[in-house]
Fold:
Amino acid sequence: MSPTPSLVPPEPITVDPPQAIARPLLTQSWLDVTFLHWAVDPADVAPLLPPGTVPDTLDGVTYVGLVAFRMHRVGWLRLPGIPYLGSFPETNVRLYSVDEHGRRGVVFLSLDASRLLPVTVARIGFRMPYLWSRMAVRRRGDTVTYTSSRRWPGPRGAHSRVTVRVGERIGEPTGLEHFLTARWGLHGAFFGRSMYLPNTHPRWSLHRAEVVACEEDLVTAAGLPKPAGGPVSVLYSPGVPARFGRPARPGGIRTP
Structure:
Protein backbone atom coordinates (compact mmCIF):
# COMPACT_ATOMS: atom_id res chain seq x y z
CA MET A 1 0.00 0.00 0.00
CA SER A 2 1.31 3.45 -0.90
CA PRO A 3 2.11 5.74 2.05
CA THR A 4 -0.37 8.52 2.67
CA PRO A 5 1.17 11.95 2.05
CA SER A 6 1.12 14.37 4.97
CA LEU A 7 -1.18 17.35 5.04
CA VAL A 8 1.32 19.84 3.62
CA PRO A 9 -0.72 22.20 1.41
CA PRO A 10 0.05 21.85 -2.31
CA GLU A 11 2.39 24.49 -3.62
CA PRO A 12 0.71 27.28 -5.59
CA ILE A 13 0.28 26.93 -9.34
CA THR A 14 2.68 29.39 -10.98
CA VAL A 15 2.96 30.11 -14.70
CA ASP A 16 6.73 30.63 -14.36
CA PRO A 17 9.12 28.12 -12.74
CA PRO A 18 9.48 28.66 -8.98
CA GLN A 19 13.27 28.35 -9.18
CA ALA A 20 16.10 28.32 -11.69
CA ILE A 21 18.18 25.25 -12.57
CA ALA A 22 21.74 26.52 -12.95
CA ARG A 23 23.35 23.12 -13.58
CA PRO A 24 20.94 21.01 -15.64
CA LEU A 25 21.10 17.24 -15.65
CA LEU A 26 19.21 17.10 -18.94
CA THR A 27 18.23 19.62 -21.62
CA GLN A 28 15.74 19.31 -24.47
CA SER A 29 13.10 21.20 -26.41
CA TRP A 30 9.44 20.27 -26.85
CA LEU A 31 8.08 21.47 -30.21
CA ASP A 32 4.62 21.43 -31.85
CA VAL A 33 3.01 20.37 -28.58
CA THR A 34 -0.65 19.35 -28.46
CA PHE A 35 -2.36 18.73 -25.10
CA LEU A 36 -5.57 16.67 -24.97
CA HIS A 37 -7.17 16.23 -21.54
CA TRP A 38 -10.09 14.28 -20.14
CA ALA A 39 -11.54 14.51 -16.63
CA VAL A 40 -11.14 11.27 -14.65
CA ASP A 41 -12.17 10.00 -11.23
CA PRO A 42 -9.31 10.41 -8.72
CA ALA A 43 -10.12 6.90 -7.45
CA ASP A 44 -9.22 5.47 -10.88
CA VAL A 45 -5.93 7.37 -10.90
CA ALA A 46 -4.68 6.80 -7.34
CA PRO A 47 -3.54 3.13 -7.74
CA LEU A 48 -1.37 4.11 -10.71
CA LEU A 49 0.65 6.79 -8.88
CA PRO A 50 4.06 6.29 -7.22
CA PRO A 51 4.30 5.80 -3.45
CA GLY A 52 4.01 9.02 -1.50
CA THR A 53 1.82 10.79 -4.06
CA VAL A 54 -1.90 11.29 -4.51
CA PRO A 55 -3.95 12.67 -7.42
CA ASP A 56 -3.69 16.42 -7.79
CA THR A 57 -7.18 17.82 -8.21
CA LEU A 58 -8.84 21.04 -9.24
CA ASP A 59 -12.34 21.50 -7.80
CA GLY A 60 -12.35 17.81 -6.87
CA VAL A 61 -11.47 16.60 -10.38
CA THR A 62 -8.23 15.22 -11.78
CA TYR A 63 -7.22 14.67 -15.40
CA VAL A 64 -5.47 12.32 -17.79
CA GLY A 65 -3.44 13.95 -20.54
CA LEU A 66 -2.48 12.68 -23.97
CA VAL A 67 0.41 14.94 -25.00
CA ALA A 68 1.95 14.69 -28.48
CA PHE A 69 4.97 16.65 -29.67
CA ARG A 70 8.42 16.62 -31.26
CA MET A 71 11.31 16.05 -28.89
CA HIS A 72 14.27 18.11 -30.12
CA ARG A 73 17.97 17.73 -29.35
CA VAL A 74 18.10 15.96 -26.00
CA GLY A 75 21.38 16.78 -24.26
CA TRP A 76 23.19 15.82 -21.05
CA LEU A 77 24.54 18.36 -18.58
CA ARG A 78 25.77 21.38 -20.56
CA LEU A 79 26.72 19.41 -23.67
CA PRO A 80 25.04 20.35 -26.96
CA GLY A 81 21.86 18.47 -27.74
CA ILE A 82 22.15 15.42 -29.98
CA PRO A 83 20.72 16.22 -33.46
CA TYR A 84 19.52 12.75 -34.64
CA LEU A 85 19.22 10.34 -31.72
CA GLY A 86 18.03 13.21 -29.53
CA SER A 87 15.25 14.35 -31.88
CA PHE A 88 12.09 12.29 -32.40
CA PRO A 89 8.29 12.32 -32.13
CA GLU A 90 6.85 11.46 -28.72
CA THR A 91 3.36 10.92 -27.32
CA ASN A 92 2.84 10.43 -23.60
CA VAL A 93 -0.03 9.57 -21.28
CA ARG A 94 0.29 11.49 -18.05
CA LEU A 95 -1.45 12.06 -14.74
CA TYR A 96 -1.29 14.89 -12.19
CA SER A 97 0.17 14.32 -8.75
CA VAL A 98 1.10 16.00 -5.48
CA ASP A 99 3.45 14.57 -2.84
CA GLU A 100 3.89 14.80 0.92
CA HIS A 101 6.03 17.93 0.51
CA GLY A 102 3.27 19.71 -1.41
CA ARG A 103 5.17 19.47 -4.70
CA ARG A 104 2.92 19.31 -7.73
CA GLY A 105 4.06 17.25 -10.70
CA VAL A 106 3.20 14.85 -13.46
CA VAL A 107 3.38 11.06 -13.56
CA PHE A 108 4.01 9.37 -16.89
CA LEU A 109 2.15 6.13 -17.47
CA SER A 110 3.62 5.68 -20.94
CA LEU A 111 5.95 7.54 -23.29
CA ASP A 112 5.89 6.38 -26.91
CA ALA A 113 8.96 7.48 -28.89
CA SER A 114 10.35 6.59 -32.31
CA ARG A 115 14.07 6.14 -31.49
CA LEU A 116 14.97 2.70 -30.13
CA LEU A 117 18.27 3.66 -28.47
CA PRO A 118 16.84 6.50 -26.30
CA VAL A 119 13.90 4.26 -25.41
CA THR A 120 16.25 1.47 -24.30
CA VAL A 121 18.48 3.81 -22.28
CA ALA A 122 15.47 5.42 -20.56
CA ARG A 123 13.91 2.05 -19.69
CA ILE A 124 17.07 0.37 -18.41
CA GLY A 125 18.95 3.31 -16.95
CA PHE A 126 16.08 5.34 -15.48
CA ARG A 127 13.15 2.90 -15.27
CA MET A 128 11.01 5.31 -17.30
CA PRO A 129 8.02 3.72 -19.14
CA TYR A 130 9.31 4.53 -22.63
CA LEU A 131 8.04 2.40 -25.52
CA TRP A 132 9.37 2.08 -29.06
CA SER A 133 6.78 3.08 -31.65
CA ARG A 134 6.45 3.95 -35.32
CA MET A 135 5.60 7.65 -35.26
CA ALA A 136 5.27 10.81 -37.35
CA VAL A 137 4.36 14.48 -36.90
CA ARG A 138 3.10 16.29 -39.99
CA ARG A 139 1.95 19.87 -40.32
CA ARG A 140 -0.08 21.32 -43.18
CA GLY A 141 -1.18 24.92 -42.80
CA ASP A 142 -2.94 25.27 -39.46
CA THR A 143 -3.44 21.51 -38.92
CA VAL A 144 -1.01 19.15 -37.21
CA THR A 145 -1.28 15.35 -37.30
CA TYR A 146 0.46 13.00 -34.88
CA THR A 147 0.52 9.24 -35.52
CA SER A 148 1.88 6.46 -33.33
CA SER A 149 1.83 2.64 -33.52
CA ARG A 150 3.60 0.71 -30.78
CA ARG A 151 6.33 -1.79 -31.61
CA TRP A 152 7.94 -2.83 -28.33
CA PRO A 153 7.47 -3.87 -25.61
CA GLY A 154 3.70 -3.64 -25.89
CA PRO A 155 0.87 -3.96 -25.97
CA ARG A 156 2.01 -4.17 -29.58
CA GLY A 157 -0.20 -2.14 -31.90
CA ALA A 158 -1.41 0.32 -29.25
CA HIS A 159 -1.86 3.43 -31.31
CA SER A 160 -2.97 7.01 -31.66
CA ARG A 161 -3.84 9.27 -34.57
CA VAL A 162 -4.61 12.83 -33.57
CA THR A 163 -5.21 15.79 -35.88
CA VAL A 164 -5.81 19.27 -34.48
CA ARG A 165 -6.49 22.64 -36.05
CA VAL A 166 -4.50 25.39 -34.34
CA GLY A 167 -6.42 28.53 -33.47
CA GLU A 168 -5.74 31.89 -31.88
CA ARG A 169 -3.17 32.50 -29.19
CA ILE A 170 -4.56 32.61 -25.66
CA GLY A 171 -3.91 35.93 -23.97
CA GLU A 172 -4.82 34.84 -20.45
CA PRO A 173 -5.12 31.08 -19.85
CA THR A 174 -7.80 29.85 -17.47
CA GLY A 175 -7.11 28.31 -14.09
CA LEU A 176 -7.62 24.85 -15.59
CA GLU A 177 -5.20 25.59 -18.43
CA HIS A 178 -2.55 26.70 -15.95
CA PHE A 179 -3.24 23.61 -13.81
CA LEU A 180 -2.69 21.29 -16.79
CA THR A 181 0.41 22.92 -18.26
CA ALA A 182 2.34 24.78 -15.52
CA ARG A 183 4.08 21.73 -14.04
CA TRP A 184 7.55 22.01 -12.60
CA GLY A 185 8.45 18.46 -11.70
CA LEU A 186 8.12 14.75 -12.40
CA HIS A 187 7.14 12.14 -9.83
CA GLY A 188 8.34 8.60 -10.38
CA ALA A 189 9.98 5.56 -8.84
CA PHE A 190 13.62 4.62 -9.35
CA PHE A 191 14.64 1.12 -8.21
CA GLY A 192 11.71 1.08 -5.81
CA ARG A 193 12.36 4.54 -4.34
CA SER A 194 10.22 7.61 -4.86
CA MET A 195 11.80 10.30 -7.01
CA TYR A 196 11.03 13.91 -7.82
CA LEU A 197 12.80 15.46 -10.81
CA PRO A 198 12.41 19.26 -11.10
CA ASN A 199 12.21 21.03 -14.45
CA THR A 200 12.07 24.58 -15.77
CA HIS A 201 11.13 26.20 -19.05
CA PRO A 202 9.84 29.57 -20.26
CA ARG A 203 6.16 30.35 -19.89
CA TRP A 204 4.04 28.41 -22.38
CA SER A 205 2.66 30.24 -25.41
CA LEU A 206 -0.71 28.50 -25.64
CA HIS A 207 -3.21 28.45 -28.50
CA ARG A 208 -6.76 27.27 -28.70
CA ALA A 209 -7.04 24.11 -30.79
CA GLU A 210 -9.85 22.04 -32.28
CA VAL A 211 -9.81 18.26 -32.60
CA VAL A 212 -10.26 17.28 -36.25
CA ALA A 213 -9.73 13.57 -35.59
CA CYS A 214 -8.77 11.52 -32.55
CA GLU A 215 -8.42 7.74 -32.61
CA GLU A 216 -6.38 6.28 -29.78
CA ASP A 217 -6.14 3.46 -27.28
CA LEU A 218 -3.02 4.61 -25.44
CA VAL A 219 -5.06 5.74 -22.43
CA THR A 220 -6.65 2.31 -21.93
CA ALA A 221 -3.32 0.59 -22.67
CA ALA A 222 -1.89 2.60 -19.76
CA GLY A 223 -4.46 1.10 -17.37
CA LEU A 224 -7.21 3.72 -17.28
CA PRO A 225 -10.86 3.47 -18.32
CA LYS A 226 -11.66 4.55 -21.86
CA PRO A 227 -12.33 8.30 -21.91
CA ALA A 228 -16.01 9.14 -22.18
CA GLY A 229 -16.59 11.58 -25.00
CA GLY A 230 -14.20 14.14 -26.39
CA PRO A 231 -11.46 15.89 -24.44
CA VAL A 232 -12.51 18.73 -22.14
CA SER A 233 -9.39 20.73 -22.98
CA VAL A 234 -7.45 20.97 -26.27
CA LEU A 235 -4.38 23.21 -26.40
CA TYR A 236 -1.44 23.72 -28.73
CA SER A 237 1.95 25.36 -28.20
CA PRO A 238 4.80 26.01 -30.64
CA GLY A 239 7.03 24.73 -27.84
CA VAL A 240 9.64 25.58 -25.22
CA PRO A 241 13.22 24.68 -24.32
CA ALA A 242 13.35 22.76 -21.04
CA ARG A 243 15.88 21.90 -18.34
CA PHE A 244 15.72 19.08 -15.81
CA GLY A 245 17.59 19.34 -12.51
CA ARG A 246 18.98 16.67 -10.24
CA PRO A 247 16.51 14.41 -8.41
CA ALA A 248 15.44 15.41 -4.93
CA ARG A 249 16.44 13.20 -2.03
CA PRO A 250 13.61 11.26 -0.31
CA GLY A 251 13.44 13.95 2.36
CA GLY A 252 12.64 16.54 -0.25
CA ILE A 253 16.07 18.24 -0.28
CA ARG A 254 17.57 18.61 -3.72
CA THR A 255 21.00 17.11 -4.33
CA PRO A 256 23.85 19.60 -4.71
Notes: Residues 6 and 133 are 39 Å apart (CA to CA). The longest helix spans residues 116-126. The chain is about 10% helix and 50% strand.
